[in-house]
Queue: 3 jobs
Job 1
Amino acid sequence: MVGNRASLFLAIALLVASATDARAQDSNVDQAKEQYQLGYQSLQRGDYETALEHYQLSYELVPRPRSLFNIAVAEEHLGRLEDALRHYAQFLDVAEDRDEAFETQARKKIVELAKKLPQSADPAPPPVPDEPPPPPPVTLPRRAPQSNSGVLRVRSNLSGALVSVDGLVVGATTSATSRGAKGAAMDHTLAAGEHDVIIERAGTRKWHQRLLVSAREQVQVDVTFRDSQRTRTRILSWSLAGVGTVSIAAGATLGVLALRDVTSTDPSDHSRGKTRATVTDILLIGGAAALYGAWRLGHNPETRATVQRSSRPAEVNP
């Protein structure tokens, strides 16, 4: 009997520990994504020291390859060339299939940084820490991106729209490119397959959809944002809400008086009650219309997007 109770307590303890570990892992993933996006925003502002701190925290929480790549980018801008070279090499060791565009950049950076670093009398081992070391990465690429990847092109009517693929920010739309894009645009090379794409901008409703990208295909998403946070719009929205609330309150009060007049035993009150009932209807309908208008103005309007597919251009910047 004692042995059965001990086994039961042990099983319960294991279940509680497993649930706790799962919650901790989910929390780490969420925090890692948040730190990654904060790092990206700091990188865009040119605050490389802060970006480096956020990317390092993200990598400590969840060791993802792209965090290593961005750590190296920040270190390169800060002049920490040896650290950048080491982290670019570490990124190549753990890169995933969807990181091929980043791998190409990392290989180029390794060659560039190796030339910039002073040559010592006792040269250090090659930066890519494999045993035995592989040939120079630029001469032996591990994949042929042009044959098994596609391009995601995002165009938006407003610049500064963040583009996330599979939960990680990959860029933002900037001013119109030389390709004749209207508004703002960005291109990103993706491995062939299905990807979770989110396009969002502050003050607007985000666009979210899963897109299937085939090899050598260009998927173009044209996004139209409508900003609902303008000052005059907010003022009008609050004004309508106030008018609607007052109208409904007044209508409810007048309705009570109208009901009392209509049900009065004095026939002279009936005519006044009918008039009050008519005014009550007008106030209630007008108040409801004002509240609906306030909701429409204050509600973030839908972000619209169209998706077009075509053959991938011969050359696309990753």
Note: The chain has a mean pLDDT of 76.
Job 2
Amino acid sequence: MFISQSLYSDIESGKIELKERYIRLISSQFHVNIEWIKTGNGEIFSGSPSDIRFKYLKDIFGQLSPELQDCVLDHLKGLLKVQKKTKK
């Protein structure tokens, strides 16, 4: 989802109010705390970096076909084996 430069400028300058759908989109896309977007209070990011990476991975994984999901799982298993070998 994209917005025009002029709309972005108007939002940033306070000429127009940021709509709820944009707030939710920013929050879900960039894992930014909705309360922080609306008020500036609280933590900027929602969740730990690990949680954010997992959600991103889950979103991408869900878009893949079952065959490609199996391929990703095989690659992850291989990476885990490599990691175990290098820690010894």
Note: Residues 5-39 form one domain.
Job 3
Amino acid sequence: MDYESLGLKAGLEIHQQLDTGRKLFCKCPAFLRTNAPDIIVHRKLHKVPGETGQVDVAVEYEASLDKDFTYQGYSDTTCLLEYDESPPNLIDSSALDETLKIALLLNCEIYPISQIMRKTVIDGSNTSGFQRTVLVAHDGFLDISSGKVGIASIALEEDAARIIERDKKQVIFRLDRLGIPLVEITTKAQFLAPEQIKECALKIGEVLRACKVKRGIGTIRQDLNISVKGHERVEIKGFQDPRIMVKTVEIEIERQLSEIKERKILGDVRNALPDGKTEFLRPIPGGARMYPETDLPLQRISREKINSIKKILPKLKTEIRDELKKEGLNDELINLVLSSNSLEEFETLLQVYNKDANLIGKMVTLWRTEFATKLKKSIEEIKEILTERILEHVLEKVSSGTLDSAHVKEVLQDILNGKSVEQAVKIEKAGHDELEEQIQTILKEKPGLSENAYMGLIIQKLGAKIDKRKAFEIIKRSIKS
């Protein structure tokens, strides 16, 4: 498919919940409930004009459905704000700080002053009939393999209530999700191929995971704005699964081309389906559904605040990988260190003994797993014995020359078996006569092997008790004679 000749234009909107402990404009905890609610509220929502004085087309459509809305709440974790019976608190500072981190990682300009806005939403997902949102940053960029992708804007807003049950005339929502901080990242509409869209979505995901964001189903939602030449913009909701992103784009292009032939060129909001196809949801919103939040002051972000955030920016996983490679860690151990959340411990231990990064990588990941399997214990139980302080103590012995690095695994095994660090590192070396006798026995039992093979056998037999350099000298001498 020749995307350039088709005039493909596409941009992403990514909505990610932040994990800051509480909601954006109140002090209610930000987690989802599974037990039965103890408060039920029934509402009808009505259309209102935006700041232009007009009712938005999407709002008009939702109003025409004339639905009844039921809201489930809890006496201990939902407050009057969620029922639209109380004005909002000031914006949560932790959520704002995390949004600033994301904006700076995406090379954005921060707005020093911005107006918190109300976005008219009457599909029932907000009890008030609007969603509070504030622009935080603009004009950033992200590097992907084909070049720079522009970041148009970053906003911080309230998440919506979640649907528990619905039919054509009624929807039941739960208020536990309403108000959870949500960052919205909007790219510029400059993608010229579906592969670019997929790559950018994954790269933005990496940036988000470096910050304090919630994980799991429903915590991140991706939308795609897409059009071809001659067709109005279409917004695809739930553009989530990387495995079918390219397929979804290709099917949508074909659908728009078919509509152009039928002279149906109006854009709409559509829902992504598991097979890559989409279905109609509602008309696409216009610019007539925003108006200022009158209960809150202007949002001000000082240069001092921005500079303080810059000092604590997290590293991206790709940057961490490059740093670990420079330290000498192999790819397998890099994956283990990152996947087991052992990076901080690894970096701490590397300050104690920086001559062998792979040794430390094995200590905090691979060997703990092996010990857990061998002893039929959980990783957590192993970590309770082989704590960071214990590993640090062992490495101090290696660094001082008291312990050979080749014997570290055996020492850790002895510690798991009940020995103290001091007892475990006291390894009695085999005497010269004993070493010579054992090597000669192996040579007679298994003639014709290589030097390295014999070395492996003597290590297997005597373990940490041998002086490896001396053993290798005896093997070489004995083979030659």
Note: The chain has a mean pLDDT of 91.
